[in-house]
Amino acid sequence: MTAQHPVGVGVIGAGNISDQYLTNLTRFPDLRVVVVGDLDTARAETQARAHGVPEWGTAQDVLAHPDVDLVVNLTVPAVHAEVSSAAVAAGKHVWSEKPLAVDRESACALLDRAAAAGLRVGVAPDTVLGPGLQTARRAIARGDIGTPLSAQTVMQYAGPDLWHPNPEFLFAAGAGPLYDMGPYYLTALVALFGPVARVAGVGSTARAVRTVRSGDRAGTEFAVAVPTHVSALAQFDGGGVSQSVFSFDSPLTRTGFVEITGTEGTLVLPDPNTFGGEVRITRVQARDRDPEWEVVAPVGVEAGRGLGVLDLARAVRGGQPHIASGELGYHVLDTLMSIDASVASGESVPVTSTVGEIPLVPEDRDPYAATL
Questions:
Q1: At residue 94, does pLDDT exceed 70?
Q2: Could you read off the pLDDT of 239-288 as tens digits, one per residue?
Q3: Per-domain boundaries in the chain
Q4: Residues 138, 360: contact at Cβ < 8 Å?
Q5: What percent of the chain has pLDDT over 70?
Q6: CA Rg, the chain, in Å?
Q7: In this protein, which residues make up the domain named GFO/IDH/MocA-like oxidoreductase (predicted)?
Q8: Which of 46, 61, 242, 311 could form a disulfide with 151 if both were Cys (CB 3.0 to 4.6 A apart)?
Q9: Per-residue pLDDT tens for 171-221?
Q10: Which of 270, 260, 268 lies closest to 292, judged by CA?
């Protein structure tokens, strides 16, 4: 690639999440979305036309397109590794929705092939680049809560069968609340505490069969292949600990709950499935008093999904590391799979992978500026 024009982007997968990606990717001056591909080419055409993308077709049309430098993989989790590997084989950098793969072997093979070819792999969630988490990281680095000690996270509601018109894949292997929503929370925790060393988990499945409850297929039943409630403990290399709930079984919706407790205060983060939101700190007070809150001034531009694609593209052109890297995605996947193994075995499980310190987003970074 040369540095005289925006990075050419091809999108594979024109499902629900593609709207958010395409809305943002087509607004970043450093990117040029040239083609959308899908198994359903009519759906690819609809999305391409809706977002002003000039071409559409199949996944192979995206991979073969000479103007595509970077493939955005928005397919279902079961084929993430297959599609990303095909992109690497076609000589393209790749950004994948989470998780990186549904098994360690195909994830490692993908990263090895990309490294051998001199290509980059980035992995969602890119919410880690948003001003919410970035502001929290800077607050911790300044010592605003002293030494961080522990974390609590909660993501619980009645499940995506309530609203998704085709929810079956969210209850299949490689999904469920742990793999579908866990990456947002685990990626945030790794960014704040560093690599995970050991995990323990318990899980349950409330119903073996669920029913589609919205859209044209409402009333359709489908089998559930994964635990739909998981409680997990994690110990980090640096000594911190966390406890997390991931559930599709709760009538009480409680999502986006992330608290980091330090020696001098507790930091409350915004929902890690979002890019912005308020960061607050409370300090030690009498038990019978309501907490007093300090609001931490946000740093950065919110933008939205696709921010990681932009960071990857700019990093490729600039020769610097990208933030939501394949290595980070693999460590999060390894952690999730270790939690899954603990649920199955009833024993704590070590996490054998690691990841280096995750770079901060420069405070003055503007996704809407033309830099390439």
A1: yes
A2: 999 999 999 999 999 999 999 999 999 999 999 999 999 999 999 876 77
A3: 7-123, 128-296
A4: yes
A5: 99
A6: 20
A7: 134-267
A8: 242
A9: 998 789 999 999 999 999 999 999 999 999 999 999 999 999 999 999 999
A10: 268
CATH 3.30.465.10 holds for 128-296: no
Q: 219 burial class (0-12, 13-18, 19+ CB within 10 angstroms)?
A: exposed
User: SS3 string of the chain?
Assistant: CCCCCCEEEEEECCCCCHHHHHHHHCCCCCEEEEEEECCCHHHHHHHHHHCCCCEEECHHHHHHCCCCCEEEECCCHHHHHHHHHHHHHCCCEEEECCCCCCCHHHHHHHHHHHHHHCCCEEECCHHHHCHHHHHHHHHHHCCCCCCEEEEEEEEECCCHHHCCCCHHHHHCCCCHHHHHHHHHHHHHHHHHHCCEEEEEEEEECCCCEEECCCCCCCCCEEECCCCCEEEEEEEECCCCEEEEEEECCCCCCEEEEEEEEECCCEEEECCCCCCCCCEEEECCCCCCCCCCCEEECCCCCCCCCCHHHHHHHHHHHHCCCCCCEHHHHHHHHHHHHHHHHHHHHCCCEECCCCCCCCCCCCCCCCCCCCCC
Task: Say if CB 7 and CB 316 are below 8 A apart.
Answer: yes
- The 10s digit of each residue's pLDDT in 121-143 is 999 999 999 999 999 999 999 99
In this chain, the answer to whether the domains covering 7-123 and 128-296 adopt an identical fold is no
Please provide the average confidence, as pLDDT, over all residues in the chain: 95
How many Cα atoms occupy the beta-carbon half-sphere of 253 within 13 Å? 5
Q: Check if CATH label 3.90.1720.10 holds for domain 7-123.
A: no
Unique residue bearing structure tokens 């690639």: 1
Instruction: Kindly report whether the global pTM for this prediction surpasses the value 0.90.
Output: yes
**252 Cα distance to chain centroid:** 24
Q: What is the pLDDT of residue 3?
A: 47
